[in-house]
Amino acid sequence: MASIEEVVLLYLLRRHNKNNRNRRTRRWGVRPLNTTRIQDGEFVSLVLPMRQLDEEKHFEYFRMTAETFDHLLDRVVPFIQHPACHRAPVSATERLSATLRYLSTGMSQTALAASYKLGTATVSKIIKEVCLALWAGLEEEVKCPEGAQWEAIRDGFWEKWNYPNCVGAIDGKHVRIKAPANSGSSFFNYKGYFSFVLMAACDAQYRFTFVDIGAFGKESDAGVFSRSKFGAELLQGRLPPLPCAPLPGTEVLTPHVFVADEAFPQKINLMRPYPGSQQLSHDQKVYNYRHSRARRIIENSFGILAARWRIMGKAMECSEDTAEVVTKACIALHNFLAKGDQDLPEENRYIPQEWQIGMVHLESGDG
């Protein structure tokens, strides 16, 4: 009769043999098709010539000019520069190039790997690393307003959108993802797909001022908002940090406010529209019109974000953690590029001219 030690050894041997059978044998260090990357990969054969010879194609490919690309590279290179430890290292420029291509097209990582002649696992690692670097390198582009910045936001909403004492518009956006493992229905939203929630506020220039990323897709906007750091501070009266100010043309002191849709709670510093439409007075209808005009800036901001970075309009085929990092990178890039959008030729603008100019300023109570 076999001893306990013999039984254990036999079990371990069988498990070892089974694991060896199931383990995929790596046939090569670099896939043969990828060995010519530095001769005819997309970065060498298309991107480098394009950066030198075709500004129009460069903008279409990267959503930015070559000059802006170089400025962006300077901001992120401290976070992605690696010491050369490979016969054909992937440069910081190529890493940024591949990542921007992924964000701008929403193409699969497998397709991107094939065009750049890189391994799929390598591309996946590069995308996450560069997206983290974009969030870190563009930190100044997405930060809580301070001091006079609050007043500039308020002035922008009044001058462009005819809404006084407004310091931001708030809304949530569902970011599509593949079903996370073992998540049940937590990420399955009322629209019928898996997502997490991007909760954000923006200024009058379509730039995001606050973002909260990663809440379960099944949660309501109001629930996500109340549990976010930004939402908690607003609901507790700590935001915005401005004293009451008179409405334009009057001596009536009123608080500074954010605007949101009817899904959010009405607070002294958070305005929502009057409910319904049939029984509203003329003044209430006028208010709702102005409220809508100011609130739609956040909807337009989400639209601009998804138009420029198409990954934001597709179901991300990556882990939830990577999807959140990708979203942060797109937010940072959005703010980074929004500042110079009006200086681009009209055909390259993502913010239409009528959105840049705003509304004709009205002083009367009729609009």
UniProtKB/TrEMBL annotation:
The answer to whether UniProt assigns keyword Kinase to this entry is no
Main site of residence?
nucleus
Q: What's in the keyword line of the UniProt record? A: Hydrolase, Metal-binding, Nuclease, Nucleus
Molecular function as annotated in GO: hydrolase activity; metal ion binding; nuclease activity
- Indicate the segments forming the DDE Tnp4 domain, all copies: 170-335
Q: Where in the cell is it found?
A: Nucleus
Under the heading InterPro entries, the entry gives: HARBI1-like, HARBI1_dom
**Highest taxon listed in the record's lineage:** Eukaryota
List cofactor names only.
Answer: a divalent metal cation
Pfam families in UniProt: DDE_Tnp_4
GO CC, sorted alphabetically, is: nucleus
Q: Which family does it belong to?
A: Belongs to the HARBI1 family.
What name goes with this protein?
DDE Tnp4 domain-containing protein
Native source species: Coilia grayii
